[in-house]
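Researcher: I need the complex structure. Ligand is adenine. Inputs:
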Amino acid sequence: MERVIGVMGGSGVYEIEGLEEARWQSVETPWGAPSDAVLTGVLSGVRMAFLPRHGRGHVHGPSSVNYRANIDALKQLDVTDLVSVSAVGSFREEMAPGDFVIVDQFIDRTFAREKSFFTSGCVAHVSVAHPVCDRLSDIAFEAARGTGVSVHRGGTYLAMEGPQFSSVAESRMYRDWGCDVIGMTNMPEAKLAREAEICYASVAMVTDYDSWHPGHGAVEITDILATLRANTANAKALVAALPGLLGATHAPCPHGCDRALEHAIMTAPEKRDPALVSKLSTVAGRVLKG
Ligand SMILES: CSC[C@H]1O[C@H](OP(=O)(O)O)[C@H](O)[C@@H]1O
Ligand SMILES: Nc1ncnc2[nH]cnc12
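Model: Output:
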């Protein structure tokens, strides 16, 4: 099938450059309004859809981003492969500010967000044992390497609710748990992408050492913004490299991301809530039809 690359732009990444046929498209969803309109266009012959996670001008905080609407909107635009770009704090000396980490695991400590498309009336259970797409993550890694930035393949991302940063005690505890980086947004986004059968990869840009590091003060937003500004060019170069590396055809995902719902829906057809089934037509239409 035709590949459409989605890019979820995090803090500091509010647009992408160089798109042909570029236009900001408003998308309505049954889950409410997405964070902003979606910038669509073509890059190196591949269709692209860019959504600034917090909206242009950074309007939505991590707890108020409508993650379901964002994923539904991208699915409506036929996104097959979604690359998230995010700012993170680091729990590892060697994952230094300025480095990129291709995240491969999550610990979800968020608690004030809608985490599933499937509620009472149409229950489904997908696997997120491997919450990112390994194929897409490989490509994101290649794209990051091509920019010359120091990049780490693999890392566990602690998703916290925020918007306040962690205390020193929390920071030390997450580090002891084996987490590598911390942020506020990749959950439930990655879970919802899996429910919507979209391949998902997370590129984390390290902006700080959170608050555990004895040689660095507690994380401050001013330091984060300075590091982000310095990294914007690398993030843009990484995104620009994706279509050339991925190509215009999405072959079936070897890890099954694009078939995650195949045996996931538990609710008997006659017991399904027609109103919810209708809301699910974009993300689950493939398996709910017929
Ligand atoms: C600007 S620091 C805190 C903010 O930045 C990260 O957002 P994103 O993942 O969209 O780059 C972090 O998760 C917080 O929401
Ligand atoms: N230290 C940190 N904690 C949570 N989110 C972040 N985003 C960037 N740095 C962060």
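Model: Summary of the prediction. The longest strand covers residues 81-90.
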